[in-house]
Amino acid sequence: MPKTLDLTGQRFGRLTVLSRAGSAAGPAQWRCRCECESLLVAWAVNLKAGRTKSCGCLRKDALQALLTTHGFSSHPLFAIWRGMVKRCQDPKNSRYDDYGGRGIKCLLKSPMELADQVGPRPSPQHTVDRYPNNDGHYEPGNLRWATRKEQQRNRRNNRILTWQGKSQCVALWSEELGMSQAIIHSRIYRGWTDERILSTPIRSRK
């Protein structure tokens, strides 16, 4: 078995190797100190391949630099664009699992690009919605201003029904047909087809 290369004292990105960590058997791990004074244990293979360069502060600083360069912070849509970027790129963001964790990316490089796609914000109640593809990225052609009610209808866990060539959520079918959502959901629960659910008249009670 080849002798483990001693990395003590070597520097990898923001990390300085202090000593060997873990068991002598198996892949080598090393105890490191980051420039920000945080301590962590990293795999030797990741250090040498450049996959581990900091305790995580490097990613955070790069994100912060992205969010504040070129005077973007003065743009009226900066806060909205920044929120999109953080949800998609920052694992510590409370909503990361629903966005970046699902592979969703923000492909707009600045709030100016966002403005070019959606135009002025109609009201303080409007936010950016990924539409028509709620599983798609924040990207040109998949963006709109939407109210909270419209966004709720575009949620990925909404049940979409298709009839007469039209596909939309239960709430919209309910409004269009004058049929309560409770009746529609009851029919879904009973295993009816979309056509039967939406085309069957409601029985009148005598």
Give a written overview of the molecule.
With 206 residues, the chain is an alpha+beta fold. The protein folds into 3 domains: 11-49; 57-153, no CATH class; 160-199, no CATH class. Helix content is 33%, strand content 17%. The strands form 3 sheets. A 4-stranded antiparallel sheet has the order 1-2-3-4. Strand 7 and strand 8 form a beta hairpin. The N and C termini lie far apart (87 Å). 17% of the residues are buried.
Total number of beta strands: 8
**Average pLDDT level:** 86
Uncertain regions spanning at least 5 consecutive residues: none
Strand arrangement across the biggest beta sheet: 1-2-3-4
Tell me the span between the first and last alpha carbons.
87 Å
Radius of gyration: 26 Å
Shape: elongated
Percent of sequence in beta strands: 15-25%
Whole-number total of structural domains: 3
The biggest beta sheet is recorded as:
4 strands, antiparallel
By helix and strand content, what is the structural category?
A: alpha+beta
Name the helicity range: 25-40%
The topology string of helices and strands comes to EEEEHHHHEEHEEHHH
Put simply, the count of helices is: 8
Give the helices and strands, then pairings:
Layout: E1 11-12, E2 15-21, E3 29-34, E4 39-43, H1 44-49, H2 57-68, H3 78-89, H4 111-118, E5 127-130, E6 143-146, H5 148-153, E7 160-163, E8 166-169, H6 170-177, H7 181-189, H8 194-199
Antiparallel strand pairs: 1-2, 2-3, 3-4, 5-6, 7-8
